[in-house]
Structures are given as C-alpha cells and as structure tokens.
Amino acid sequence: HGVLDDVEAAAACIFQNGITAIVGIPMQVSYLARMKKELFDTHIKKVLLSTDYVADALVKSLSRNGTCQVFNHYGMTEMGYGGGVECACLSGYHLRENDLYFEIVDPITGKVVEDGTYGEVVFTTLNRQAMPLIRYKTGDRARFLVETCACGTFLRRMEKVRGRIENTLSVEGHEITLRDLDEIFLAYESLMDYRVECYDPNRLHVRLVLDKNTDAKAFQNALKQELHVRFQSKFDFEIEIEEDDRSSKITRSMIKRKIHDCRQGAKR
Question: Max alpha carbon distance in the chain (Å)?
C-alpha cells in the first residue's frame, strides 16, 4: 500500500482483501490503529514495525492486551534489507549476520564494549559490492543480549534499540531523551502525534496533535501534571494543541522524528 496518506483508503484495502498482518512505520501504524480501532478488533492480528527504534508504550498500545502480536524489525536505509527482526518470543532482534557484522562500541572512543553493555551500534557490510560500509556508525543506542533466546536460534541477539544518541537534550542540567517523552505521550490513546522543540534554556515547547473528539483543556492539564511529576518541575513545558485534520501533512510528519534543539549555538 505504501506510506499512509489516506486512512480511509488503507482501511478499505484491509477490509476488502481480508488482510490480517501489516508492515509499517510505527507512528503511522499507531495512527491507523487509533483512527480505525475496528480494524484491530476484526482483522489485524500481527504487526511488523520497521524502523530504528520503537517506544514500548506504542507496542503496548498496538498489542491490545495481547490480541495482536507486535514484532519489531530493526533497520535503516544503509543496511539494505534491514539488520534484524524479533521472533515469536518478542525478546530482542535476531541479527542478519550472514550479510552484516554488528558491533557495540563506546560512542566516544569507538572501542568495542563488553556484551551486555550499552553503546552505539555500528555495522560492516560483508557481501556488498556497491557502497560497502566499514564500522558504519548508526547513532543508535543498544546492547547485545548474552542469554540464549527461548526460540533456540544460534543467531546473535540484540536488545531493542533505546533510541538515537543524538535525540538527547539537556535542559537546566536535566537530560531528556525522545524515549522519555515517547513513553509518556504515546500512552495517551487520543494523541496522534507530537513534536518537541527547545528555544529557551529552561523551557520545552510541545506541539500535540489530538483526536478531534478530545477535551483539549483537560488533556493539557493532565499531561502538564504528569510531566512536572516525571521531571520534578525542573523546567517548564509550553504546550500547543492542534486538532487532527486527517491530512497527509499529519501522517507524513510521523516518518522522521527527533527532538528539535533550536537554541542559539545548538548543533542542528
């Protein structure tokens, strides 16, 4: 079907063809599930999320209390067909070691870290003739899992990526990651998408896209309270709410997500 531009057309395609499994970009699949809940009640039983990082809150929401199996596929354009995928045990990626050699390194020194230690994922292509890559830095934070997977495979296993290293922001000496915010925001079923920007030393600007049937004022108050408890009121949040107009500009904004540091002198 391709990138989600038209929710109604995608839903019609699923209904007409009796589709029970879908592959897609995490936020777009989440958007489809929140706009068309009946799809996941009657049709969709398995989902493969293909990206570099997926929030646990999003997986939990899509799994619908265990009625839908949600698999994570780890990859990026530079990997070709991707780097790894979860098995039915849903406990980490099994890596595509016949084509890619993975290492976890210290992001500062570049030295390989011990198995079980977090670091930056780098990979080397083994069979590529056009544009081979050697120890390509992905910017992703993860670790190898030392325990054998319950499925019994001999393939090396990597824990789910915890996000991009660069998607970290320091505000008033407090580090915030996209993962931190995802686990809070994406737990709300009425939230369709969000964007975080930082213009001031002690304030984050959050733009929320909410379902049109949401009580925006009540939602904002509840979210502000949760954010201040989570971050111990060390800085302020300015929240701007936009109603979901179901246009392609909303769904296309979900493809590439990051924290936007717009402060003077910040690395862009």
Answer: 56
> What is the number of other CB atoms lying within 10 angstroms of the CB of residue 81?
9
Beta bridge partners of 21: 46
Residues 115 and 189 in one domain: no
CATH of the domain at 131: 2.30.38.10
Q: How many domains does the chain fold into?
A: 3
Residue 58 CA to its chain's centroid (Å): 8
Each residue's pLDDT, cut to its tens digit, for the chain (268 residues) gives: 777 888 899 999 999 999 999 999 898 999 999 999 898 889 999 999 998 889 999 999 999 878 899 999 999 889 987 899 999 999 999 999 999 999 999 999 999 999 999 999 999 999 998 899 999 999 999 999 999 999 999 889 999 999 999 888 888 778 888 999 999 999 999 998 899 998 887 788 999 999 988 999 999 999 988 888 888 767 788 899 988 877 666 666 666 778 888 886 666 5
Residues 6+ apart with CB under 8 A from 52: 74, 75, 76, 138, 140, 161, 164
Q: Which domain holds residue 113?
A: 93-163
| 207, 133: one domain | no
Q: Report how far residue 75's alpha carbon sits from residue 161's, in angstroms, rounded to the nearest whole number.
A: 10
Asked if 188 and 210 count as a contact pair (C-beta separation under 8 A), the reply is: no
Q: Report how far residue 169's alpha carbon sits from residue 179's, in angstroms, rounded to the nearest whole number.
A: 11
The predicted model scores a pTM of 0.87
CA distance 251 to 244: 10
Q: The tokens of 88 are what?
A: 């039915």
